[in-house]
Amino acid sequence: MKKEQVVNCQFSVWYPIFKKHTIKSLILPLPQNVIDYLLDDGTLVAPEFPEFNSKVLKAINTLGGCVFPKLNWSAPRDANWIALNSSLQCQSLSDIFLLFKSSDFITHDLTQPFLHSSDEDSPNPAINYELVLRKWSELLPGGEFRCFIKENKLIGISQRDYTQYYHHISKQEAQICHSIQEFFSQHVQYQFLDEDFVLDVYRDSWGKVWLIDLNPFGEVTDSLLFTWEELTSGNSLSANQEEGDTAQQEAPVFRYTTSDVTVQPSPCLSYRIPRDFVDLSTGEDAYKLIDFLKLVRTSAVVFTQFKIATGLL
Question: What is the per-residue pLDDT for 12?
Answer without folding.
Answer: 97
